[in-house]
Amino acid sequence: MCDDEIHPGAIDYDVAVSRRFFSVAGLAAASFVGGSAHAAGAVVEKDVDIKTPDGMADAALFYPSGKGSWPAVLIWTDIFGLRPAFRDMGKRLAAQGYVVLVPNPFYRKGRAATLATNLDFSKPDDRAKLMALAGTIGAPNAAESDAPAFLGFLDSLPQTDKTKKAGVQGYCMGGALSFRAAAALPARIGAVGSFHGGNGLVTAGPTSPHLLIAKSTASYVVCQAQNDDKAQPTLKDTLKAAFAEAKRPASVEVFAADHGWCVPGNAVYNEAEAERAWAELSALYKKALV
């Protein structure tokens, strides 16, 4: 969903937001990893480059420090791309016991550091630039070709436990990309999280994400925004019907927050509802990534 009447617009991520995010992260990690959580400072962070069929993708990699191996997770960003907020999300998830990759989804247009991601979606010129970036990943089969490359990279790492299923999660446009990844890699991906995915999850096209659910073997958590739901009140019912028909375990819920609420720094960031969504995702991964 990238409707200028619904999208949060500009982003403003500061140090105070990051500190609050990690103060909650420590509690969440202790809850979901049996009390043996890794502190945020005990997470290894690396910038990596990954070869794909379309070029070289830059990405951020995170995993717990020390010896061991952990399930893999791929994070698709929203339309504003790879930035500090998503790096912090990667660190937080790694602290819970996962090997996490956050790619620059727009690598076909340039590296994350060179792309102007601090744009305001409500401004026509900025919106046009963002939509041009989104078009590079929305092209036919782009996500389907990227996902195997990204999961292949994760599986090449000694830190990844390849005996366990992988997870994939996405925000805004990343929700649809997560559905596509799960359909492209049904034997590998065991859990999908979509957060304020909006109308991108159900389209009129023959390859609409909701039509790909039957190709996956994953369990799903779908957290929709209240203003997305108001704009398309039947979308959640279409999703629920698709999950039921495919016999895939799924939770589809409308949260009391607006599109973009899960990402710290977004104008509509809602900490309480974002933490509730994070808890649902953490519970899904704990159950499904086995």
Write a structural description.
- By secondary structure, the chain is an alpha/beta fold.
- The chain has a single domain (15-288), classed as Rossmann fold (3-Layer(aba) Sandwich).
- Helix content is 37%, strand content 19%.
- The protein is built from eight helices and eight strands; from the N terminus they run αβββαβααβαββααβα.
- The protein has helices spanning 15-32, 84-95, 124-138, 142-155, 173-184, 226-231, 235-246, 271-288; strands at 43-52, 55-64, 72-76, 99-103, 166-171, 189-195, 219-224, 250-254.
- It has an eight-stranded mixed sheet, with helices on both faces.
- α1 (15-32) packs parallel to α2 (84-95) and α4 (142-155) packs across α5.
- Mean pLDDT is 88; it is low at 27-40.
Question: What's the helix and strand layout?
Answer:
Blueprint: H1 15-32, E1 43-52, E2 55-64, E3 72-76, H2 84-95, E4 99-103, H3 124-138, H4 142-155, E5 166-171, H5 173-184, E6 189-195, E7 219-224, H6 226-231, H7 235-246, E8 250-254, H8 271-288
Parallel strand pairs: 3-4, 3-5, 5-6, 6-7, 7-8
Antiparallel strand pairs: 1-2, 2-4
Helix pairs in contact: 1-2, 4-5
